[in-house]
Structures are given as C-alpha cells and as structure tokens.
Amino acid sequence: VAVQRALDECREVFFPEGTYLVRDTLRLKPNHRLFGEMWSVIDLAADSAGFQEPSSRKPLLYIPDDPDAALTLCHLRFHLQSPGGIAFDWRAGEWSMLIDSTTYTESRTQELNWRISGRGGGLFENAWNPGVSGDGLEITSTGPTWLYAVQQEHYRGTAVILRGARNLVALGLQFETSPRYVLIEDSEDITIFQTIAGNWTAPVPAMIEVSDSRNVALLNSGITNCEAVIREQPHGWIAGPSSPDRSFAYWPVWIAR
C-alpha cells in the first residue's frame, strides 16, 4: 500500500537498496520514472491473491497501454515467488525504456515470465532474466522495439517467443540451458545481431527456429551443443553446421525476404 501511494503521488520514485515486499499489482502511469540502486528488489509474496494459478497473466507491474508513454524503469529487480502471474505485460510505446533491470522467478509451474504486447516497445538494455518457468519472454507487439544485451536463461520451454511481432531489432541476446532459445512465428521486419547460447545438458535442435515470417535478418549467431544454428519452415532451410556435441556452431548471415 505504501509503495502504491508513492506511485500515485509522485512522477519519479526512488527505491533505496533493499527489498520491498508487495502482495498485489503495482499500477504505473505513462510518465512514471522509477529508479533503484541495483539491489533494490520489488518482491511479490508467494501467497499473493490472483497469482496462484500457473496460467495467470496477472502482472506484478501494470504497464499502461499507451504508445506515447515515456515510462522509465532503471536499476530495479523484480522477483516473483508465486506459482503464477508475470512480471509485467509491457505495452508502453517506443519512448519508454527498461535499463539495467532484472526479472526473475522461482516457480517451476509459472507458464511465462514477461511479455511485450499490443503497441508496446521502446529500449530494453542490459536485462538479465533468469527463471525456471515454462517460457521466458513472449513478444507479440508491433513496436518498434530494441533489445540490447537481454539475457533469458534456464527456462523449461522457450526462452524468447516472437509471435506476430513487428519492427524489432535485437543486439547481443544471450541464452543458457533451455530446450529452445528463439522461436519466430508469423513475424515481420525482425533483425537479430550477435546471438549466443550454450546448453550444457543436452543438444538442442536449433538456436533460432523461424516459420512463416517475412523480412527476417539474423546475423552473427553462435551456439554450443546444437544440431543447427537456424531452422526455417515451410521451406526446410537449415543454416549452420550440424554439431550435436559441445563444439561451437556459428553462422554469420541469414536473410529471408
């Protein structure tokens, strides 16, 4: 209640280093600017109402559905202990940004960590998002969206899903130990530079799987312990050497118009 009161009353809110335990969604405004001290943790209690179902999409942070929003979050950590819910469904537009911030979850039943949807976009820089939920990040937005040094690690399903996404540029995506890293479906105008991944438990079929998408450029991608770097459908194209062991497979350029 105290945190929400501060958000209601102030455009800029500073969270000194520490843990802030909350039990319900924090509602943000389009022009909010939130800052922490790197170890400033917004911690959702495990027994929070509405976050108990694994399929729940109730967010820890409510992000306004506003393409003109200038929302800024910086140096914050968002921690979910609950069986369900998500960190946030990012729907603020291209003038917004998430900088040096982390989302992480402890639930193996949770289906998804966080989303970018609607007309959501903006700059996401240096975001380390480890978790053991089913999927990590789902992007269905029309953007424009820029991802720089975003790390999605240790998911039981797919680390990043682009489904119907548009106008996205990503540089320096990094993954570790998930059965599938990047799935691109029915998406358009997607450019991904310098993706790297490693799986130390079992080989994965491909680092990036593409289906029914247009204007996709994938450049300088490398992975260990995989069978291929890129697989595409419906044409069945495969890019990158078959390498189903712990050696390194690399593919410099792949472009589909």
Task: Explain the layout of strands and helices.
Elements lengths: L1 H8 L2 E3 L3 E5 L3 E2 L5 E3 L4 E5 L14 E4 L9 E3 L2 E4 L5 E5 L6 E3 L2 E4 L6 E5 L5 E9 L4 E5 L5 E9 L4 E6 L2 E6 L2 E3 L3 E6 L2 E6 L2 E3 L9 E4 L2 E13 L3 E4 L4 E2 L3 E14 L1
Parallel strand pairs: 1-4, 2-5, 3-6, 4-7, 5-8, 6-9, 7-10, 8-11, 9-12, 10-13, 12-14, 13-15, 14-16, 15-17, 15-18, 16-19, 17-20, 18-21, 19-22, 20-23, 21-23, 22-24
Antiparallel strand pairs: 23-26, 24-25
How many beta strands in the DSSP annotation? 26
Q: End-to-end span in angstroms? A: 51 Å
CA-atom Rg in angstroms = 18 Å
How would you classify the helix and strand content by structural class? Answer: mainly beta
Elements, N to C (H/E)? HEEEEEEEEEEEEEEEEEEEEEEEEEE
Subunit organisation of the chains: single chain
Number of helices: 1
Largest sheet composition:
10 strands, mixed
Q: What general outline do the C-alpha atoms trace?
A: globular
Low-confidence stretches: none
Strand order across the biggest sheet?
Answer: 3-6-9-12-14-16-19-22-24-25
Average pLDDT works out at: 92
Residues in helices, as a percent range = under 10%
Binned strand content? over 45%
